[in-house]
Amino acid sequence: MSSIGRASALIGAGTLASRATGLLRSVVLVTALGAAASADSFNVANSLPNAIYMIVSTGILTAVIVPQIVKASRAEDGGRAFISKLFTLGTVILLVVAVVATAFAPLLVRLYAAKFTPAQIDLSTAFAYWCLPQIFFYGMYAMVGETLNARRIFGPYTWAPIVNNIVSIAGFGLFIVLFGSGQKAPTAWTPEMIALIGGSATLGIILQTVVLFLFWKRTGIRIGPDFRWRGMGLGHIGRLAGWTFLMVLVTQLAAIVQSQVQSTASADDQAGQTIALNAGLIFILPYSIIALSIGTPYFTRLSEHVAQDRFDDVPKDVSSSVRSISLLIVLSTAALVASAVPVSRLFTTSQSQAVDAAIVLLAYLVGLIPIGILFTVQRTFYAYNDTRTPFWFTAVQAAVAAALAAASLQLAPEFRTAGVALGQSISILVQVVIATILLRRTVGNLRVRVWMLSLGRYLVAAIPAGALGWLTFLLLGGVDGWTTSSQLLGAVGTVIIGAVVAVVYIAILAALRAPELAPVMSLVRRRIRR
């Protein structure tokens, strides 16, 4: 556990720092653009590189690189030849995709935001030309980062995004100085304004990738261009990546439906893409810090167990990972529910907007505990080189999410984005139930009863902790109090409410003598010291 703990602490600290600066980036962006039509135009354009990159690259990077490099490292050259071929192939694919996607920028914008006004479409397309080249650099960053993870070099991959956030914050801040802050009509944008916002976002991704390359020497692997792809097992890799490609594709098809529904709300000046994006950022923050920091070292170890045929060790590590992640995920859920309004004030420009955004955030939070469990379950399939099964249970999730998003069109415009978020959460819950049942067929006894017993203890502690946190919010003035009067005070109020929830939660778990509490708190203390 010591190696897992050290790696988790390093990943957690880096993820916390990168997510904190990412949150600050969002706050500065909202200050610069507001949270209405123009901000939605930029956020749609800036999300396109992620969407395209995920469709093309995730199958190779997430599901293939770590298990395959762990396996290739047992070769006499330590995996040098395989990694050289893999990087050459990946670079070629990413470059072609980035060029083609940029050429089709107008079509992509309409695909994700058909309900935008013509002015919003034009502005979003102009931003997309600046943002879509990020696909190449996102892909290179992920290839290097996953290789570092496979070689047990966990820190740089999580710390490098800080560079991206700092560059973006500087660029957005310069925009405020030169062009002022607040909402601007889509027709008011000049080429210089577009270049500064779009260029800052892309420059941040480029420098983030460059910084990660500086740590490559730690792998001890010297690589170079190698186009001799025959014999590297492309057939096997293709089968693994193919299923994950399809998995991400169906997820993105669902995302298109969700984005289209959100764009109808944006056209009516209601909570749209920007509110959804920032609420999703708050939602994913504890997942990123907790699930990634604890689960990533476990994923590498699970891959090693499978590569060495130590299958009896898999259920124990799966159970330990799920219970450790869930303890902190449940705490985060209770804290965010209690502080939903003040934390939403961070990325909104008024108290009324904060309430609207809080409704969206609460809808997302329904899925926080399930997605924390899903992290370990899904990656256990990847450790077994099984990408076909995750495709099928993700296809079900995408279908449910798309159907519920479409049903949200029946809601009033002000509730459509929240309806999409709730549909996403329900679909994740369905997904994790199906995935766990299927994983049990592969691994055997997963100790699910132990998970559920632990989750029961966590919920017993979380419900009164969350209630006291909400009471604290009301005592601080509630919706019309000082915690929603500004972004800074919203952050202060969030910290106070979160601290109350955490103290009560931990005290109740200690009274219940939860066996998971001591090792997790020890991990947290090590993380804080580092």
Derived structural class: mainly alpha
Tell the overall outline.
globular
The quaternary state of the protein chains shown equals single chain
The helix-strand sequence is: HHHHHHHHHHHHHHHHHHHH
Mean of pLDDT: 83
Stretches with pLDDT under 50, minimum 5 residues: none
Largest sheet: none
Number of DSSP strand runs: 0
Q: What count of structural domains?
A: 1
Rounded to an integer in angstroms, the radius of gyration calculated over CA atoms is 22 Å
Pfam families: MurJ
Keywords: Cell membrane, Cell shape, Membrane, Peptidoglycan synthesis, Transmembrane, Transmembrane helix
Subcellular location: Cell membrane
Main location: membrane
Describe the structure.
It comes from Microbacterium candidum. InterPro entries: Lipid_II_flippase_MurJ/MviN (IPR051050), MurJ (IPR004268). Its main location: membrane. It is a multi-pass membrane protein. This protein has 530 residues and is mostly helical. It has one domain (2-221, 231-529). It is 80% helix and 0% strand. The protein has 20 helices and no strands. The protein has helices at residues 2-33, 37-72, 80-103, 105-112, 118-131, 134-150, 155-159, 161-179, 191-213, 234-267, 273-307, 314-338, 340-344, 351-365, 368-383, 388-407, 413-443, 448-475, 487-511, 517-529. The longest helix is centred in the N-terminal third of the chain and has 36 residues, at 37-72.
